[in-house]
User: What shape does this take?
Amino acid sequence: MIRMMRAELYSLRTTPGPWLTLLAVGLAQFFALLVIGMQGDPAAAWAGLGPSAGELTGYPMLLLGVMAATHEHRFRTIVPVVLTTPGRFRVLTAKAASLAMVAALAAAVSQTFWLGTAVARHGGPAMRTGHLADLARLYAFTIGGVVLLGLFGVALGAIVRNAATAFVILPVGALVEAMVPLTRYHGPFTSGLAAFGPNGGPGTPFLTGWTVVALAFAAIAVRWDITD
Assistant: This one.
């Protein structure tokens, strides 16, 4: 498993998709800060730290997860991988674990960026820098939510095996969910929009549940023969 994870991390490191995704994440952070700015009220600024970092990092990680799970199908390099690996579930596990590591690192850097910006404007005490438990919860929910979105992307990519198809499903699914009050912020595509905050959000349990369900379906899907 360690060997497979190293291979997955090497693949992520040596292909342009992940680097372009991380560049997009960084640009989105700066653009949001320049256009939207930091909340003038310290309490509002503190409450917005998680959503700012989580949403702007989580959804790009979802797209990266899709790419990580589908690029080998696109270039047909998945065939020798599954032929030489005992158990296709191990391939999915290695992809998911590698993506989770990248997502966690990106989330931690993003949250530090927003926290540092808030501290520069409102001061450390207002941003609870002296309360390690509060900061730990903030980082835990941000990193956890971003990782869940990344894993959901891996699962979706493993199920459909085609990035273009997944990139159509995502916006269409999000649009449909947003239009229906019952599924808005509760469905698999929009729950991430309500999953971040200093103590999580109402979408956190839904995002967790949908990710678990998606990974379960992905585990079944990877057992199918590679015929596409």
Observations:
- The first helix runs from residue 2 to 14.
- The two ends are 26 Å apart (CA to CA).
- The chain has a mean pLDDT of 84.
- Residues 63 and 81 are 22 Å apart (CA to CA).
